[in-house]
Amino acid sequence: MTPELLEKDPENRLLARGPRFRLPAEMLRDNALAVSGLLNPEIGGASVFPYQPAGLWEELAFGDGFTVQSYVPSQGKDLYRRSMYTFWKRTVPPAQMLTFDAPDREKCTVRRTVTNTPLQALVLLNDPTYLESSRVLAERVLHEAGRDPAKRASLAFELATARTPGKQELAVLERLAKQQMATYTKDRKAAESLLKTGKSPVDSNLDPAELAAWTTVTSAILNLDETVTKE
Are 82 and 39 in contact (CB under 8 A)? Predict the structure, then answer.
């Protein structure tokens, strides 16, 4: 809060300020999908089954006499529905949501706890939803921002944070893109392996090394504290 805002709106009637907190579990996923353009905005309908680690349900399966004992991921646009439509099994809640403090729905919750753990960073960096969102965002940036690395980085940053990057931030992102481009140019298999994450089709018109490099850049942007925090 600045002195100017405090003087203009001392009682916060204009909502000039508010609490700062990490987005809730559902919004974290939806935000990444929305920024990339993958989010399916349809309203209503049956529950869906987004990505989750294989074998979780099977660990607590009770035999053929019970329903929903094995997890079968959804296909097509259902993979990208808003998180409120995710099928919820109380004995095995969605792992990604639990990691980000979503309640297990075994009991009523007045207020969610808010934690900050290394596992959360691992999810944001490695979960298929976030890697796929990074790759699709990178495709969007490569198509819309031309060949200039600065324009690419600026577009990705603005889409994720709703502001333009500063000079130092832009320099870091450009340096990261250059480093990753060198890495994936030498290791094409690593680039192709990264791009295989997720079910959405990869744009075959783009150079795999270049797309992988910018996927790493957009992943870094989606992992920024400013991206995952309600400012």
Answer: yes
Q: How many whole angstroms separate alpha carbon 186 and alpha carbon 32?
A: 29
Say what the alpha-carbon torsion angle 207, 211, 214, 216 is, to the nearest 10 degrees: -130
Amino acid at site 11: E
The residue assigned the tokens 């809640």 is 93
CA distance 131 to 219: 7
Contact call for residues 164 and 154 (beta carbons, < 8 A): yes
pLDDT of residue 37: 95
Vertex 171: Cα angle to 168 and 174 (nearest 5): 155
158 Cβ contact list (under 8 Å, min separation 6): 164, 165
Are the C-beta atoms of 227 and 31 separated by less than 8 Å? yes
DSSP 25-87: HHHHHHHHHHHHT--B---S---B-----TTHHHHT---TTSS--S-----GGGGGB-GGGB-
> Residues 108-149: pLDDT tens digits?
888 888 899 999 999 999 999 999 999 999 999 999 999 999
Choose among 63, 25, 223: nearest CA to 131.
223
State the pTM of this model: 0.89
User: Which two tokens mark 24?
Assistant: 């809730």
- pLDDT-derived band at 65 (thresholds 50, 70, 90) equals low
In this structure, are residues 93 and 107 in contact, taking their beta carbons and an 8 Å threshold? no
DSSP track, 146-194? TT-HHHHHHHHHHHHHSSPPPHHHHHHHHHHHHHHHHHHHH-HHHHHHH
